[in-house]
């Protein structure tokens, strides 16, 4: 279902111990069309980490948040501004305010479920 979508993972950095790194790297290894976004930038597995959704060369179909709730609030604002219609809030990144705002803007929200488990990758 998600293999044919463009995905952005928010919260990626160069630390292999962090979930943003692990999720991005595993999606990439499994052949997903995925881009990394992290405020510090950098590089993972030969791929650029963009500093914002707006910097991505292509608009993603789905955004996965792996950031604290305040980061998810900002990500929802970015999704609204860019016309992105689906957001997946990984456990620990959900925000009631972000969910409310996203749904009001017509964005499909998935929360309280792990993308990697739901897609059979972990």
Describe the secondary structure blueprint for this structure:
Blueprint: E1 6-10, H1 19-29, E2 33-37, E3 43-44, E4 47-50, E5 62-65, H2 69-82, E6 86-89, H3 96-104, E7 108-111, H4 115-118
Parallel strand pairs: 1-2, 1-5, 2-4, 5-6, 6-7
Antiparallel strand pairs: 3-4
Short recap of the structure:
This protein is α/β, with parallel strands linked by helices and 122 residues long.
What do you see in this structure?
With 122 residues, this protein is of the alpha/beta class. It has a single domain, classed as Rossmann fold (3-Layer(aba) Sandwich), CATH 3.40.50.720. It contains 4 helices and 7 strands, in the order E-H-E-E-E-E-H-E-H-E-H. The protein has helices spanning 19-29, 69-82, 96-104, 115-118; strands spanning 6-10, 33-37, 43-44, 47-50, 62-65, 86-89, 108-111. It has a 7-stranded mixed beta sheet with strand order 3-4-2-1-5-6-7, sandwiched between helices. Strand 3 (43-44) and strand 4 (47-50) form a beta hairpin. It is globular, with a radius of gyration of 13 Å. The mean pLDDT is 96.
Features:
122 residues; alpha/beta; 4 helices; 7 strands; 31% helix; 23% strand
Task: Compute the number of structural domains.
Answer: 1
Q: Assign the CATH superfamily.
A: NAD(P)-binding Rossmann-like Domain
Mean pLDDT: 96
- Radius of gyration, CA atoms, in whole angstroms: 13 Å
Uncertain regions spanning at least 5 consecutive residues: none
Number of strands: 7
Order of helices and strands: EHEEEEHEHEH
Strand residues, percent: 15-25%
What's the story with the biggest beta sheet?
Answer: 7 strands, mixed
CATH architecture: 3-Layer(aba) Sandwich
Q: Separation of termini? A: 16 Å
Structural category is alpha/beta
The neighbouring-strand order within the major sheet is: 3-4-2-1-5-6-7
Give the CATH topology.
Rossmann fold
Give the overall shape.
globular
């Amino acid at each position: 279902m998600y293999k044919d979508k463009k995905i952005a993972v928010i919260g990626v950095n160069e630390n292999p111990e962090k979930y943003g790194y692990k999720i991005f790297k595993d999606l990439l290894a499994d052949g997903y069309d995925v881009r990394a976004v992290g405020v510090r930038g950098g590089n993972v597995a030969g791929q650029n980490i963009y500093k914002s959704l707006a910097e991505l060369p292509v608009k993603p179909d789905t955004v996965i948040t792996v950031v604290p709730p305040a980061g998810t609030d900002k990500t929802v604002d970015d999704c609204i501004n860019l016309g992105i219609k689906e957001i997946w809030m990984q456990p620990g990144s959900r925000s009631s305010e972000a969910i409310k705002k996203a749904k009001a803007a017509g964005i499909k929200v998935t929360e309280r479920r792990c993308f990697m488990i739901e897609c059979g990758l972990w």
